[in-house]
Amino acid sequence: MGEGHEFAVGWRVAAWLGSCGGGSGQGGLFVGLDVTRLATATPAWLQALAEDQTQLWGKYAAALLGEHGEQLPALPLHDPRAAAVLIAPTVATLEHRTVAVSTSNGDLRGQLHVARNGDSNAATVTVATAIDYSRFLSSLLDSLLPVGRDC
Q1: 130 and 59: one domain?
Q2: Are the C-beta atoms of residues 9 and 106 closer than 8 Å to each other?
Q3: Is the same domain home to 6 and 19?
Q4: Residue 54: inside a domain
Q5: What are the two backbone dihedrals, phi and then psi, of residue 86, each rounded to the nearest 5 degrees?
Q6: Half-sphere exposure of 43 (CA within 13 A, CB side)
Q7: Which of 15, 105, 136, 137 could form a disulfide with 82 if both were Cys (CB 3.0 to 4.6 A apart)?
Q8: In a domain, 101, yes or no
Q9: DSSP labels for the chain?
Q10: In a domain, 150, yes or no
Q11: At a CB cut-off of 8 Å and minimum separation 6, what does 3 contact?
Q12: 89 and 63 assigned to the same domain
């Protein structure tokens, strides 16, 4: 995996995004929480969103800013970030990995890890190891705000 990404342990799947690889043995596209939690709404991004008060997201952004100002709690954008990888895969760094999902009971259940010998549920999949944060936020803002905005 890329530098700074611990994949072998503790990587929970944020999204499994369809089938990819067209029969080439690729089992799907995975975008993990370790990647999506890095995308959080910033005060500047919310301010740009809040300028459109005709939409519910603009009103919500304004309410968040009114309540928290610059001291926003972490607001990870897990679902939009995972969807962005499906729509525009070039926004992410993608790697093929042979992985397995832990089926044991307890805290490890559901964790994705690099497959080891003996993993009966191993499959080769495409994994997002990084996403271009600023490009993602800009694209999301462009898709939510009216055409012709000045920001």
Answers
A1: no
A2: no
A3: yes
A4: yes
A5: -70, -45
A6: 9
A7: 15
A8: yes
A9: --TT---SSSEEEEEE----STTSS---EEEEHHHHTT-B--HHHHHHHHT-TTSHHHHHHHHHHHHHTT-PPP-B-HHHHHHHHHH-GGGEEEEEEEEEE--SSSTTTTEEEE--TT-TT-EEEEEEEEE-HHHHHHHHHHHHSPTT---
A10: no
A11: none
A12: no
Look over the chain and give the mean of its residue pLDDT values, rounded to a whole number. Answer: 75
Q: Looking at per-residue confidence, does 12 or 48 come out higher?
A: 48
- The pLDDT assigned to 80 comes to 84
Each residue's pLDDT tens digit, 71-123: 888 888 878 888 888 888 888 899 888 888 777 777 777 777 778 777 777 88
Task: Give the separation between CA 91 and CA 95, rounded to whole angstroms.
Answer: 13
Q: What is the pTM of this model?
A: 0.63
Give dist(CA 22, CA 117) in Å, integer. Answer: 26
